[in-house]
Automatic annotation (TrEMBL):
Coiled coil: none annotated. InterPro entries: ESCRT-II_cplx_Vps25-sub, ESCRT-II_cplx_Vps25-sub_N, WH-like_DNA-bd_sf, WH_DNA-bd_sf. Keywords: Protein transport, Transport. Pfam families: ESCRT-II (PF05871). Signal peptide: none annotated. This is ESCRT-II complex subunit VPS25. It comes from the Eukaryota. Belongs to the VPS25 family. One of its GO terms (biological process) is macroautophagy.
Length: 178
């Protein structure tokens, strides 16, 4: 586990039954919701874009001697993807999951709200500025997966809220907000 995150672990993470998929449907649904919350918070707080199933430290809690089984991991991750918070990067193998810190629609809304609040309407900025610029540090889209950023911008373009101009590469593409 990442020492920076250890102090933020919720109480339920230290409850041994959390690491066994619960047989009662209502209890399992609550448990899966807690796993979604934990996975999303961990990856968002630490700005981790991809969950590699066999490397994720969340599956094991050494302090209580518990570990989620391989079948349990599959159940948790299938639920996580079904909820819209993740996407398999390798759908056939299902070993790598892109974490959607925010869903593309939420990210599009965040980007547009930022553009309005910062006087960017009828102005042009680059994808690099949206992804890594000083003005967006601390925003939900700062450092986000480029594929996810591309999809969020596509949503804004479909809504008529921006137009994207191709540059030499994706980071150099320009965006004009309306």
């Amino acid at each position: 586990m990442n020492p920076c995150f250890d102090s933020q672990l919720p109480d339920f993470y230290h409850f041994p039954p959390f690491f066994t998929v619960q047989p009662v449907l209502s209890t399992r649904e609550k448990q899966l919701g807690q796993w979604r919350e934990l996975i999303l918070k961990y990856h968002t707080d630490l700005r981790i874009k991809t969950l590699v199933l066999h490397e994720c430290p969340l599956w094991k809690n050494d302090s209580i001697g518990r570990e989620l089984s391989h079948d349990g991991i599959r159940i948790v991750m299938d639920d996580f993807v079904r909820s819209g918070h993740g996407e398999w990067e390798d759908p056939d193998l299902r070993t790598r999951c892109r974490i959607l810190w925010r869903k593309p629609e939420q990210l599009a809304s965040d980007i547009y709200d930022w553009a309005v609040a910062n006087g960017k309407i009828n102005d042009v900025c680059t994808v690099y500025e949206l992804h890594s610029g000083e003005d967006v540090n601390g925003m939900s889209f700062y450092g986000v997966d480029e594929e996810l950023l591309r999809r969020a911008l596509g949503i804004l373009e479909q809504q008529g809220k921006c137009v994207i101009f191709n540059g030499d590469n994706f980071s150099g593409d320009g965006i004009k907000f309306f």
